[in-house]
From TrEMBL:
Record protein name field: -aminocyclopropane-11-aminocyclopropane-1-carboxylate-carboxylate synthase 1
CDD domains recorded: AAT_like
Example of a GO biological process term: amino acid metabolic process
Signal peptide (UniProt feature, chain positions): none
Pfam families linked: Aminotran_1_2
Entry keyword set: Pyridoxal phosphate
Molecular function (Gene Ontology), one example: transaminase activity
Length: 478
């Protein structure tokens, strides 16, 4: 090597695909979570640590779940539970899930256990299903803001592109509420994607919605299904918050509809992470009547199986209707509503309105008046300032929101922590809003720049909001 010549970086030996995956940026939600993991709040051992109001977890019912999980009927182990089992999910578990969802999703006829596939979480459902429905470069329509994790789940395996259907807070003449989805918006986004040469294969809907917390009215749901049918699109229906509904709004599961316009292209997912507060147990299910789709997902299910003992315990759990109906669901709903009220009242006192919601574990809060300017850069600055106060919440940018200044706050945590969250937020907004940002922001600046949802998002107009997906070739842009 000649003097002064820099040593070449050793070849890490990855394939082009591996290098693409290694080089893909973590989303903002994951980055926030990583920071929290390094310095988590603990009332006794780390009271100055980060309070996590950013990750969508239900921590409200651990006491009653624990009580149920240590009952004698859970302590069962037979050799078959430690052996390889049906990749689709143990039959008796699928039977319990089918009975449970027939009842709780109000299906008009009994759901067939053979139409279910059990995987290790809904992330795995997104990854496998999108891989078998789309080819790399294909697009899926998705109303924004939306749960940003879907981007990586559909891209890392399958190479799919989101085609945004942007929703805004301003209510126009044709609309009755903020961030309202309409069929016209779906049609426009679909048409633009085609004009940009994107083959759109699917429509993804989340109901109850994450992060908005609202619920699709039955009529809109049917219109969306008709829209998808007209354009021969698959519908991936994520109902992971189906039973975390606490207002007086009626929730309509697609499983409850008497008929579907295109049953072979309509796929449903649900899991234990949110409605049962068990995201650590990693179980999600896909329900589809499409035999070929099941066959293909089932091949990939080899990589995404759930442990036999977990499937057994969850079968017992679902079977105990008396406990679910008289203890778990009423307690969970009551605690969710209480927690939501406390947080919403605390935010209201600070002059922060939230979108009216009746499902999910979070509120979608309007911090626009606290932004120095109506830009995503100002949104990021505010996020860092709040983090400086050791409070993690999620900026709208993490959900590909097209309007800066919205944040998602998860309320499904203990009342003590909610009050502490309000206190830290108050302190920051009242006393420190004009102070320079804490030094950790500078240290983390490099993280910001490679963010999948943000890189060129900063200081941009809505027109180029999605260019930050450096790994994605095309995105329908508005
Ligand atoms: C809408 C939505 N879908 C899917 C998931 C992932 O669920 P799981 O824990 O089952 O992988 C989440 C997690 O936050 C979510 O909010």
């Amino acid at each position: 090597m000649a003097d002064g010549e820099a040593a070449a970086a050793p070849d890490p030996g990855l394939s082009a695909r591996g290098a693409g995956i290694a080089g893909s940026a973590k989303g903002l939600l994951q980055k926030g979570f990583d920071m929290y993991v390094r310095d988590p709040f603990d009332a006794a051992h780390n009271p100055q640590g980060i309070l996590n109001f950013g990750t969508s977890e239900n921590k409200l019912c651990f006491d009653i779940i624990q009580e149920r999980l240590v009952k004698p009927d859970m302590a069962y182990l037979e050799p078959h539970l430690l052996q390889y089992s049906d990749t689709q999910g143990i039959k008796s578990f699928r039977e319990e899930i089918a009975k449970f969802l027939t009842e709780y999703a109000k299906a008009p006829t009994a759901l067939d256990p053979d139409h279910f596939i059990v995987l290790n979480g809904c992330c795995a459902v997104f990854a496998t299903l999108s891989t078998v429905l789309c080819d790399p470069g294909d697009g899926y329509l998705i109303p924004t803001p939306y749960y940003g994790g879907i981007n990586s789940k559909t891209w890392l395996y399958g190479g799919m592109q989101p085609v945004h259907v942007p929703l805004f807070s301003e209510v126009t003449n044709e609309e009755s509420q903020p961030f309202q989805l309409t069929i016209e918006k779906l049609e426009t986004a679909h048409q633009r994607a085609i004009e940009q040469g994107i083959r759109v294969r699917a429509l993804i809907l989340i109901n109850p919605h994450n992060p908005l917390g609202d619920i699709y009215p039955a009529q809109l749901l049917k219109e969306c299904l008709d829209f998808a049918h007209r354009h021969k699109l698959h519908v991936i229906m994520d109902e992971i918050y189906m039973l975390s509904v606490y207002g007086d709004t009626t929730f309509t599961s697609i499983l409850s509809l008497e008929s579907l316009p295109d049953p072979d292209r309509t796929h449903f997912m649900w899991g234990f992470s949110k409605d049962f507060g068990m995201c650590g147990i990693r179980v999600g299910v896909l329900y589809t009547r499409n035999h070929e789709v099941r066959k293909a997902v089932n091949q990939l299910a080899v990589f995404h199986g759930c442990p036999g003992p977990v499937q057994y315990v969850l079968s017992q759990f679902l079977r105990d209707r008396e406990w679910l109906d008289n203890v778990f669901f009423p307690t969970n709903k009551r605690r969710l509503k209480e927690a939501q009220n406390i947080l919403v009242d605390g935010l209201a006192e600070m002059g922060i309105p939230v979108l009216k919601s009746s499902g999910g574990l979070y509120v979608w809060a309007d911090f626009r008046k606290f932004l120095k300017s109506q830009t995503f850069e100002a949104e990021m600055d505010l996020w860092w300032k709040i983090l400086g106060e050791k409070l993690l919440i999620s900026p709208g940018k993490a959900f590909c929101c097209y309007e800066p200044g919205w944040f998602r706050l998860v309320f499904s945590d203990s009342i003590d922590k909610i009050y502490l969250c309000i206190q830290r937020l108050q302190q920051m907004l009242r006393d420190k809003i004009d102070e320079p940002i804490a030094s950790s922001h500078e240290e983390n600046e490099h993280i910001e720049l490679d963010d999948e949802t943000s890189a060129n998002y900063i200081n941009t107009s809505v027109d180029d909001v999605s260019e930050g997906y450096s790994h994605l070739k095309k995105i329908a842009v508005f």
